[in-house]
Write a structure and sequence with these properties.
single chain, Alpha-D-Glucose-1,6-Bisphosphate, Chain A, domain 3, TATA-Binding Protein, 5-stranded mixed sheet, alpha/beta
């Protein structure tokens, strides 16, 4: 990720967002707290202005805040500069359309094509000059607007008075807004990960390192720990006993409540192929249905929109409450959990235990010399078929390639942990033998 790439993207997104419009394209930019965010923000804004577009700078705010503000500000697109849970050296760019949803694949492909060609004048037309160039302005109250939005997703008849909450913002985009949301609803908040310095984002804190929030929950006697990632679009929660409650358990809890209240549209929860079999069984036992998608929150959202569903997410903590937000929102998700806790008067440990019974699950990653089509890996295919037959209806096997590197991911679920560990090792060995002699 370089300023040159960011500049080209700024031009390309202005061209695409403004196509067919009679008004000047308005593009909103938010970022997390990485040192490189300042450099990339300036480059993208320069690209937009060079095309005559208007830039609205929001500063460090969560990814879901950018999605929400894009809609409320009637912007033509929203851009987030963030590498999410990655270390500070990395960076990336996410783009939302005017509807607050991530761009479809075909639009992303068009942007990439324009960027590869350097977003040249031949494709984009002559660049404006003089008074026709664009301008950038700062949205001074971007954080305050998001705080109001997030608070409004919490039931108006409830308060968090006296509830102790530990919030870990991972030194990331939510370092100011996350504590405020819970405080303004009445909670007694202890804040962690709220001192970003440009290079400490996600370092030993946040959703990837819940031990920090766990220790503070036990120390403070808190009812809940909220651990966000760098751009706050996902979370891991910790109960009052210091136990981690992952995305599957949160989905089981919220889907069960929504089913009981008649609020879960079509009685269906959308999750990925990585979600635990226990989630599926819990939902089925309550008369609901689990629809599985490929790995990635964008595929969950696409399935939700196509099917008319309103709850979905990933085991990793991306949770989408489509009645409230167009993308994963860690703060909004935490508020939904707190609402159930306040209404029932029960601790999270009890609620999570009752929501689902987890099936033992093994995840194994193997780095291989290169990528092959899975169907061309004969030894792995035969071993996978044997394990699938052995597990029958008591478990699942999922083998897939990483999306970015020659790493094979093996996931097995079954009733016996020791047995599925053996099965996972067998599949890993079979995969390695498929590359013998290379």
């Amino acid at each position: 990720m370089s300023p040159e790439i960011a500049l080209a993207l700024g031009r390309a997104i202005t061209f695409v967002a403004g196509r067919g419009k009679t008004h000047t394209p308005r593009i909103l930019i938010g970022k997390d707290t990485r040192l490189s965010g300042y450099m990339l923000e300036t480059a993208i804004a320069s690209g937009i202005c060079s095309m005559g577009g208007r830039v609205i700078l929001c500063g460090p705010i969560p990814t879901p805040a950018v999605a929400q503000l894009t809609v409320s500000m009637r912007a033509d697109a929203g851009i987030v500069i963030s590498a999410s849970h990655n270390p500070y050296e990395d960076n990336g760019i996410k783009i939302f359309g005017s509807d607050g949803f991530k761009l479809p694949d075909e639009q992303e492909a068009e942007l990439e094509s324009l960027m590869v060609t350097g977003a040249s004048e031949e494709l984009l037309g002559p660049l404006p000059t003089g008074e026709n160039i664009g301008r950038a302005e700062k949205l001074e109250d971007s954080r305050g607007r998001y705080v109001v939005f997030a608070k409004n997703t919490f039931p108006r008849d409830l308060l968090l008075d006296g509830v102790k909450v530990v919030v870990d913002a991972a030194h990331g985009a939510a370092y100011r807004v996350a504590p405020l949301v819970f405080q303004e609803l009445g909670a007694e908040v202890t804040s962690l990960g709220v001192r970003p310095n440009g290079v400490n984002i996600n370092k030993d804190v946040g959703a990837l390192h819940p031990s920090s929030v766990r220790a503070e929950v036990l120390k403070r006697g808190a009812a809940l720990g909220v651990a966000l990632d760098g751009d706050a679009d996902r979370l891991i929660v910790v109960d009052e006993k210091g136990q981690v409650v992952d995305g599957d358990a949160v989905m089981a809890l919220c889907a069960g409540r929504m089913l009981a209240d008649g609020e879960l549209k079509k009685g269906t929860l959308v999750a990925t192929v990585m979600s635990n079999l226990g989630l599926e069984r819990a939902l089925t036992s309550k008369g609901g249905t689990l629809l599985r998608t490929g790995v990635g929150d964008r595929y969950v959202v696409e399935a939700m929109r196509q099917g008319g569903y309103n709850l979905g997410g990933e085991q990793s903590g991306h949770l989408i409450f489509l009645d409230h937000a167009s993308t994963g929102d860690g703060i909004v998700a935490a508020l939904q959990v707190l609402a159930i806790m306040v209404r029932t008067g029960k601790p999270l440990s009890e609620l999570a235990h009752a929501a689902m019974e987890r099936v033992p699950q093994i995840l194994k990653n193997i780095t291989l010399p290169s990528r092959k089509k899975l169907e061309e890996m004969d030894k792995l295919s035969k071993a996978t078929a044997l394990v699938t037959r052995a597990l029958g209806g008591e478990g699942r096997v999922l083998v897939r390639w990483s999306g970015t590197e020659p790493k094979l991911r093996i996931m097995i679920e079954g009733p016996d942990l020791a047995l599925i560990e053996t099965y996972a090792s067998d599949l890993a060995s079979a995969a390695q033998h498929d590359f013998a002699g290379i």
